[in-house]
Automatic annotation (TrEMBL):
Lineage top rank: taxon: Bacteria
Pfam entry (one): FUR
Protein name, as recorded: Fur family peroxide stress response transcriptional regulator
InterPro entries named in the record: FUR, Fur_C, WH-like_DNA-bd_sf, WH_DNA-bd_sf
Family statement drawn from the similarity comment of this UniProt entry: Belongs to the Fur family.
Keywords tagged on the record: DNA-binding, Repressor, Transcription, Transcription regulation, Zinc
C-alpha cells in the first residue's frame, strides 16, 4: 500500500470514519488510477473483489471522500462525473473522442489568479481550466 493511501486512511480514522474493506479499496483504486474514473468504472473494477458491493456504496463513499477534501469531482460535458484523488492545484486536458483526461500543471497560471484578484478585488478560491483536443492514441487511429 502506498504511503499516500496510508496517510489518507489515517486522516479518515482521525475524523472518526470507520475504514471498511470497500472504503479502503475505493480509495486505493482512485489514488492509484490516473484515469479519472467514473463511479461506474470504479464499481466494475472492484466488483469481482466485492461481489456484494453496490454502485450506491461507491457513490456514498466518493461523496464522503469529497466532503473530507480527499477527492475532487470533475463534471464535464458528458454528464457522468469523474473522480480525481489528486486534490493539488492542477489542470486537465481532455480528449474529445475517447474522453481520456490527463493532468498537467503550469505554475504561471498562478499569476493569472493574482492578477484577477488585484484588478477585481475578488478573492479567487479556485480555478477550473480545461483544454480539449485529441489524445495521442485517437490522433493515430
Amino acid at each position: 500500500m502506498t504511503t499516500r493511501v496510508q496517510d489518507a486512511l489515517e486522516q479518515l480514522k482521525m475524523n472518526g470514519v470507520r475504514i471498511t474493506p470497500q472504503r479502503h479499496a475505493i480509495l486505493s483504486y482512485l489514488m492509484e488510477s490516473m484515469t479519472h474514473p467514473t463511479a461506474d468504472e470504479i464499481y466494475r473494477a472492484l466488483e469481482p473483489q466485492f461481489p456484494s458491493m453496490s454502485v450506491a456504496t461507491v457513490y456514498n463513499n466518493l461523496k464522503m471522500f469529497i466532503e473530507a477534501g480527499m477527492v475532487r469531482e470533475l463534471t464535464y460535458g458528458d454528464s457522468s462525473s469523474r473522480f480525481d484523488a489528486n486534490v493539488s492545484k492542477h489542470y486537465h486536458v481532455i480528449c474529445e473522442r475517447c474522453g481520456k483526461i490527463e493532468d498537467f500543471d503550469y505554475p504561471s497560471l498562478t499569476e493569472v489568479e493574482n492578477k484577477a484578484e488585484e484588478s477585481t478585488g475578488f478573492q479567487v478560491n479556485g480555478v477550473r481550466m480545461e483544454l480539449y483536443g485529441l489524445c495521442q492514441n485517437c490522433r493515430v487511429h
